[in-house]
Amino acid sequence: MVSETNIPAIWILVAVTVGLIVVLWISLKTRKFISERDRYVLLALRILAIVLIGLIAWNPSIEENYPDRDGFQLALLADLSASMHLPDVEGDTSRISTVEQMLAADSGESLGDRLTDLYDLVQHGYSDGLIPGKLNTFELKPGVTAIGDSLDELLQNHSAGANRLGGVVLFSDGISLEGQSVFEVAKRYRSAGVPISVVGVGEPSAGKDLKIEFSQSPKEAVFGEAFELQVLVSNEFDFAVENEIVLLDGDEVLDQKPIKIDGESEKEVGFTVVPNRQGLHLLRVKVNARQAGDLNPNTDVDYAAVTVAEPETMKVLYLSARMSQEYRFLKRVVEDDPGLSFRALIKLGPGKFFQGGFEADEIDSKKPEFPQELDTLLRYSVLLVDASAFGELKDSVSLGLKDFLMRRGGGLVVIGSLDNVPDQLRSILPIREMDTRYSESRQGLEVQQEPAFQGLAGGVLFGAPSPFLEEQMRVPLASKLSKGARPVLQARASTLPIVAAQAYGAGRVVHMGSDQSWRWKMDSDRGGEQYRLYWQHLLAWLGAGGKPRFEVPLEGTLQDLSEPLNLNIMVRNNEYQLSDSAVVRAVLKGPDGTSTPEQLLMPDSREPGQYRGSVGFSLPGEYRVNYSVEYEGGEQIDRSAFFAGAYIGAENSDLRFRESELKDLARITGGVYYHYTEVDAIEELSLSSSVPMFQRYHYWTRHFLFILLFLGISGYEWFYRRRIGLR
């Protein structure tokens, strides 16, 4: 407090003393005329008035110093390194999201807005060094955190520049793994007189993990035959954990088991799996609910690849709504092949069915009927469907043949006219249009080696006399094939196919317009051998399933979240040739359930069949990419791929919050440490003593309340004297 007056202080003191003496003398002189109470009231009012008059003469003031906003800069540094992804703050919010909330612009109440109002604030991000430019986004950056290097670079930049550095506020979790020692740089800040205020972002934690992984899984398995899996669950916490373990194959939940595991221990969990399709299975096992305090969510899921082959004896199912000669001869041929197991279900009339080849537990012989569920069809490697059966099958089953090809990867033979095939199913058939012609004479047929009969080159199936069409018969010929369809059997005279094949999804489809191949066997022994070879090899080829149509490199992998995600996929058409004319789209779904906008992947002109695209992602955990591939002929195949995202490297090997190091940094430089929960209480920050300051004086006697007090006391003293009869 200072005084601004030209009157010497001693004179003011003497005048006030004299005034008080006079007031006391007057009070004593009037004691005979007024009551004691009135005398004391007047004495108090007059003493207060004398003191206030003395203050007016002394004119005291309070001096306030505040920084010159234009004379320096305050630097704000936000940690954008990979360790800031950890969701260990209140509400399972990530560290970086917490910083973003504290510095949110235009909210009016955030710490960032308050500091902007007070200082010339310059904001930077840092990771393995100071990130050039203004801090506009809070996206995590690659590199290993170097707090020391970042602070040193900031100090050097301001030492060489015209802008004086008045202070620093640092937002960090304290993890610094590279570069200069933080404390050596802190000493240089102390020598420069620049304090560092620190906001610690994180919560104290023991750095524990609940981890799951496959400890035993076969590389190969057989369709329909059970195999065993062993999963190891490790609990690093010092208390028991209860959770649920889920085993999945794509979207299908194969099994789930509750588990309770003691603290700091391991436990194995076994699963038994019966594969329901051939091909590659990417199995996933994961913890159903993330454990609170788990520092590594990417270890909550693991992958195992199992290749499932068809059994040595493949099951074949024949469905028809009529008894035909083709069935009678076909049954004998298939039963003669030890690699094929034949079943037949034929409707003979209302409520009457013929059942052949079924074991007792495979069908209800008392209530025979066509399959009512798609799962029934998935038990078989090959389906032989006479077109007459489509009118008797439930829509869900007949349309489910697409899923049979996509999921099961099996083979399908459709025998008969397109007129009997549901419109929704025609897209899976290789023959799109048929033309029925009358055969006036016997016609030779030509069997194509590709794709089903490669191993029979030079055999009786290809030599003369060849298989034939009987004379005076109506024969349906294929007048239009789908793109990618291949002729299997065609008339020599017309070159129009009678039988065609194509791939669909993971399976293979054959369409035969005629059911008269049994006549070959009736013609001669050679014809009988041709009939046997034709059907046995065709069914074996169909049952073997197709090759994978897609190759997705990221499937089942651990992807680094600090780098953009490559959505690349290799695409083949239904001839299994690399395709560069498909339309490929991809959508990424994250661990939090949110999805990115649909992205169109672009074909790579240098690598046929390769489609490329990339997208950013930041949350650790399990991801899913939904691919949609549309081919020129209208065929569309949807495919999902699963993988895990994590921040990989030394940055994430130890994610513990280093609060003590941050407190030491603030203490050494003369700053103040704040936990992130205390930021609402921050009104101003520690600044360098060399920062230019403005002075402001607040005078007591010029304040409205002082003036009001003086006038009130003076006026009341006058009123009180008049009320008791004094002048």
Average pLDDT metric: 87
Side-by-side strand order of the widest sheet: 17-16-15-18-19-26-25-24-21-22
CATH topology of the largest domain: Rossmann fold
Note the beta-strand portion: 25-35%
Cα gyration radius (Å): 44 Å
Percent helix:
10-25%
* Integer tally of domains: 5
**Biggest beta sheet summary:** 10 strands, mixed
In CATH, what is the homologous superfamily of the largest domain? Answer: Class I glutamine amidotransferase (GATase) domain
Low-confidence stretches: none
Principal-axes geometry comes out as elongated
Distance between the termini: 39 Å
Number of strands: 38
SSE-based structural type: alpha/beta
CATH class of the largest domain: Alpha Beta
CATH architecture of the largest domain: 3-Layer(aba) Sandwich
Number of helices: 14
Describe the structure.
The structure is a single chain. This protein has 727 residues and is an alpha/beta fold. The protein has 14 helices and 38 strands. Strands 17-16-15-18-19-26-25-24-21-22 form a ten-stranded mixed sheet. An eight-stranded mixed sheet has the order 27-30-33-32-31-35-36-28, with no helix packed on it. It has a five-stranded parallel sheet with strand order 4-3-5-6-37.
Secondary-structure blueprint:
Elements: E1 2-3, H1 9-29, H2 36-58, E2 60-67, E3 73-79, H3 95-102, H4 111-118, E4 121-126, H5 147-160, E5 165-172, H6 182-192, E6 196-200, E7 210-216, E8 220-222, E9 227-235, E10 241-249, E11 252-261, E12 265-273, E13 279-287, E14 301-309, E15 314-320, H7 325-335, E16 340-349, E17 352-356, H8 374-377, E18 382-386, H9 395-398, H10 401-408, E19 411-415, E20 431-439, E21 443-447, E22 468-469, E23 473-481, E24 486-491, E25 497-504, E26 507-512, H11 518-523, H12 525-543, E27 550-551, E28 558-560, E29 565-566, E30 569-571, E31 583-589, E32 599-603, E33 610-612, E34 614-615, E35 621-630, E36 636-646, H13 659-669, E37 673-675, E38 693-699, H14 704-723
Parallel strand pairs: 3-4, 3-5, 5-6, 6-37, 8-14, 15-16, 15-18, 18-19, 19-26, 28-36
Antiparallel strand pairs: 1-2, 2-38, 7-9, 9-12, 10-11, 10-13, 13-14, 16-17, 20-23, 21-22, 21-24, 24-25, 25-26, 27-30, 29-34, 30-33, 31-32, 31-35, 32-33, 35-36
